[in-house]
Structure formats: C-alpha cells, structure tokens
Design goal:
Blueprint (H helix, E strand, L loop, with lengths): L22 H12 L4 E4 L6 H11 L4 E5 L6 H15 L5 H8 L7 E6 L2 E6 L5 H19 L3 E6 L11 H11 L3 E7 L2 H9 L10 E4 L6 H14 L3 E2 L1 H11 L3 H14 L3 E2 L1 H14 L1 H10 L5 H10 L7 H6 L5 H13 L3 E5 L2 E4 L2 H10 L2
Parallel strand pairs: 1-6, 1-7, 2-5, 5-6, 8-9
Antiparallel strand pairs: 3-4, 10-11
Length: about 375
C-alpha cells in the first residue's frame, strides 16, 4: 500500500518505536548497573527480554559486551566472540597490538583475519578451560581499565552455560567478587534452571545478583493505543474495539501481539475488523499445528483442555476439590503432572505458589478448538 512498510516488528532486533511498556523493569536495570550491582533478568521465551537488554545496550550509555549463550557451543567459541567485541570497544588499536596486550597468555595460539564484519579472532590448538577462562577475565579487566569506565557484560540465555563450560558460573562468582568495575547482566528463559543457579541456597551464584522478573503481559491501554496508531499511521484503519480484540486474543503477550498485527497488516487491505482478526489468528494456529500436535501427543491430552480452561478462568486454588470436580480433572496428581509438562514446554508460566498463566495464546486457542 503506497510506500508504507509493515510497521510491526518481531524477532530479536530491538526496535525503539515498537517497544511497549517495561518502563519499570528498564528503570530498575539502569539503576542496578549504575550502582555496580550484577543483575539477572528472568522471563519466558519471546517475552521481550532480549529487547529490554538491547534497549539498555543502545541507550544505557555503557560499553557493553553482549553474548547470547544459545549461539555458543564451546568455551573457545565463546571466548573468540568476546575477543572480537572487546577489540571493537577499543576502537583504533591494531589487531596485533590487541592480541599482545590483552591476550598475552595465549597470544601464540591467536590469529586474526579481516572480513566484511570487521576483524575476527581465532584460537588454535587445544587449550585448557582453566587457561581460557583466566584469559577471558584478564581481557575484560584490561578492556575496562583502558576504557576508564564501567564495562557491562550481558550474558543472554545463561541457562545454556553447560554447552560452554560447567566451570563458568563458579569462575564468574570468583571474578566479580574482586572486580567491581565489570558488571554482569544475566538473562534466562528457563525459570527453574535460573532459580537453581541464582536463588536457591545450593546455587553457585546464590545471592550474587539483583533480580528483574518480567512476568506480566503488556498493559491493555498502552497496547491498544499502540495498535491503533501503527495501523492508522500507515493508512490502514482499525477501531478501538477491534484493537482490543487483538489484545484479548494475544493476552498482551509481546511476541504474539506483534505477530498477529504483522500478519493482519500484511494480509488485510483497508479496514481491519473482528472477522479478519479472527480468521488471521486461526490461520496462525493452523500454521503451528504440526508442532502443537507433537506437544499434545506427549501430554495427557484427555484433560488438556480442562486444565487450560481452569488456568484461564481461575485466579488460583487450582487443586481444591471444587475446581477439580468443576473442570472434570480426576485428581491432583493428574493436574500437577500436566502443569509441570506445560511449564517445561513454555506454554504456561508459574507466577507464584499455586498460580499460573497461559503464555502461548495460539496453543490455547488451538487446543480449545481442536477438542470442542
């Protein structure tokens, strides 16, 4: 339509004009780092966690090393990425001088090359985890001292640390107990693993970080205003009531709200109404049907619809006899097993003792329609 491009964004790349709410969480993150505290950000998958981190990187005013642990499969590869980012922060140094100054313990094993992405570093030979970890921290310390300002290291999806090194958490604790000018921001989407590491007494990183928990859906008023503005600014029309329908279907989930709006903008000409919204939402359900069927096969599907209805309609007290009878769930064990499996699959999220919320609205819609 004309020269307009689709204004709705999904994916990991931060888009300031599409960032909705999270003011409280962002303000807390900035304040924690300013005070020199390490932070762990916990949120379900596709809940805006990475956008929050990227907003901080873009606007926080600190030099940042950002590493996504899902994209690293060895300690050597992890350190190589850190070397590249450290080099880029120190603008102007030659790669050879950089290696000699900051990587002196492994300098003879390090080579560099130039490509379209700038300078890349490689580590040759078999080096021990202990040596690589020691060199990694010396690199961070050296970069921070030369920059003469606080250095922030963001480790996204930290629950994947085992693919890098089992020794990483313990080594991190030892490092930041003595180095106060390098601040770490961790994030994770596997809540039970993050809880074990950071918030249980037996965890290696227990009491080492402040906590930011992104558990709330986006606020309705701000989300609806955003939807109406984005459609109307690109010469497509939607009423306030129909924008609320989008919010209702997606439950204010950041990813699914953007996804549904993206598909509507792409598929519907002119006016977006309730009928078009429901048709496109159901088409998204069908698009995901193969994956959802695989999930259903691994669950006690006989009671799956009942459990989803229970979570959707009740604020808590799921295990009471009245609720078990009302939703035709045979016993507390069946309910507990399904809640555990749905949590592990990222379909629901535990909010606190005995309370959950559904965080995949497409899956909920698919199950309820399939089992009618």
């Amino acid at each position: 339509m004309g020269s307009f491009v689709n204004p709705f964004k999904i994916g990991k790349t931060y888009s300031p004009e599409n960032f909705i709410d999270r003011k409280e969480e962002y303000g807390y993150l900035v304040g924690a780092v300013e005070s020199g505290n390490n932070v762990v950000v916990v949120a379900p998958r596709r809940f805006g966690k990475t956008w929050l981190l990227q907003k901080f990187i873009a606007e926080g005013g600190y030099p940042v090393v950002y590493l996504d642990l899902f994209g690293s499969f060895s300690l050597k590869g992890f350190v190589q990425k850190m070397m590249k980012q450290g080099y880029e922060l120190l603008k102007g140094k030659s790669p050879m001088n950089f290696v000699g100054r900051y990587l002196k313990h492994i300098a003879k094993h390090v080579s560099f090359s130039f490509d379209v992405g700038g300078v890349s570093f490689s580590i040759d030979g078999e080096l021990s985890d202990e040596l690589l970890i020691e060199q990694m921290y010396e690199l961070l310390e050296g970069v921070q001292k030369d920059l003469k300002k606080k250095l922030v290291v963001v480790l996204d999806e930290f629950q994947a640390y085992r693919s890098i090194s089992e020794k990483l958490p313990e080594s991190l604790r030892s490092f930041y107990q003595v180095q106060k000018d390098v601040v770490f921001v961790f994030s994770g989407s596997m809540r039970h693993m993050i809880e074990e590491l950071f918030f249980e007494e037996s965890g290696v990183l227990y009491h080492s970080c402040l906590r930011i928990d992104i558990g709330k859906m986006l606020p309705e008023d701000e989300s609806v205003e955003y939807i109406v503005e984005k459609f109307n600014d690109t010469e497509k029309k939607i009423t306030l009531e129909d924008a609320k329908r989008i919010y209702e279907l997606t439950k204010g989930h950041p990813y699914f709200l953007q996804l549904l709006c993206y598909e509507l903008w792409d598929k519907v000409e002119g006016v977006i109404g309730k009928e078009e919204i429901d048709v496109v939402f159901d088409s998204l359900c069908e698009r995901e049907s193969y994956g959802y069927e695989l999930v259903i096969e691994t669950l006690e599907y006989k009671y799956l619809k009942n459990v989803l209805k229970l979570i959707s309609e009740q604020a808590g007290d799921y295990f009471s006899n009245a609720n078990l009878q009302r939703y035709k769930i045979p016993n507390a064990t069946t309910l507990n097993n399904l809640l555990k499996k749905l949590t592990e699959r990222g379909i629901i999220e535990k909010l606190g003792r005995g309370k959950y919320q559904i965080i995949d609205p497409l899956f909920e819609r698919y199950v309820l329609k399939r089992m009618e």
